[in-house]
Automatic annotation (TrEMBL):
Domain spans labelled CN hydrolase: 5-261
Entry's Gene Ontology molecular function annotations: N-carbamoylputrescine amidase activity
Organism: Larkinella humicola
Designated name of the protein: Carbon-nitrogen hydrolase
InterPro entries named among the record's database cross-references: Aliph_Amidase/BUP, C-N_Hydrolase, C-N_Hydrolase_sf
Length: 290
């Protein structure tokens, strides 16, 4: 039997005005709910500009407690709209201790918990190791009103292990709030195309390998040397694109998915059945050079 759920994606640009960004996100949640969304995912670090393009101690003032004022406000909106809200925030855990964290609010406004980003990049324009301590809560699933969901964050997208573990924990959908873009000084269009293609392909492969829907929500707009490429999407459990957002422009989209397809695809393509878990111990090594 089908088990249909409506997923809302809010792909938006951000400014230096934190309150304006929050209100824009809330407007996106309300718009998605009006279109029938039951679960709404916001992009990574939606409350501010993407500040990790520079190493600046002043940016730590952007962080907040989780739970805190933003989760309380979003909890009110979740309850008002009867939607689950997935919200990526800059968490201040203690003095000098910060995380890149996503909170989940259930449809009744209840705070269900948070996931702290496990994989932290450090690349030109993405100096996240300066700001974020790697997550220490492990991988998480959240039992919401509409589905059991797994949440991972941006750089986690490039690794098969988090998707596998979260799926093995029972996640019916994998959500990836994201902030990724192109270098505005890059002159070779093939580089841009290759980068986006790889980003989309690796996440669609998580859907295939684990037999779950994957939802990736990215930001748009140009911010200090980065042109965030949007391209948010929803893939079914065999990697087929159900929805693909444009690279330009803000979009609020609602996509119906059928969670019963997980059983169909896992039965037809029984990757879980054929896993050789007795042979996977080497994966716990950094590199097999001995």
């Amino acid at each position: 039997m089908s088990k249909k759920v409506n997923i809302g994606l809010v792909q938006m640009s951000c400014s230096a005005d934190l309150d304006a960004n929050l209100e824009k996100a809330i407007a996106g949640i309300r718009e998605a709910a009006a279109k029938g969304a039951q679960i709404v995912c916001l992009q990574e670090l939606f409350r501010s500009l993407y500040f990790c393009d520079v190493e600046d101690h002043h940016n730590f003032s952007l962080a907040e407690a989780i739970p805190g004022p933003t989760t309380e406000r979003l909890g009110e909106i979740a309850r008002e709209t009867n939607t689950v809200v997935i919200a990526s925030l800059f968490e201040k855990r203690a003095a000098g201790l910060y995380h890149n964290t996503t909170a989940v609010l259930d449809a009744d406004g209840a705070y269900l918990g948070k996931y702290r980003k496990m994989h932290i990049p450090d690349d030109p324009g993405y100096y996240e190791k300066f700001y974020f301590t790697p997550g220490d809560l492990g991988y998480k699933v959240f039992e919401t009103k509409y589905a059991k969901i797994g949440v991972l964050i941006c750089w986690d997208q490039w690794y098969p292990e988090p998707a596998r573990i979260t799926s093995l924990m029972g996640a019916e959908i994998l959500f990836y709030p994201t902030a990724i873009g192109w270098d505005t000084e890059e002159t070779d269009p093939n580089v841009d195309e290759e980068q986006y293609s790889a980003w989309q392909t690796i996440q669609r492969s998580h859907a295939i390998a684990n037999g779950v829907h994957v939802v990736s929500v990215n930001r748009v707009g140009q911010e200090r040397g980065q042109k965030f490429w949007g391209g948010s999407f929803v893939a079914n459990p065999h990697g087929t694109l159900l929805y693909l957002a444009p690279h330009e422009g803000e979009v609020t989209h609602v996509q119906e998915i059928d969670l019963s397809l997980t059983d169909k695809y896992r039965t037809t393509w029984p990757y879980f059945r054929d896993r050789r878990i007795d042979s996977y111990q080497p994966i716990t090594k950094r590199y097999l050079d001995e």
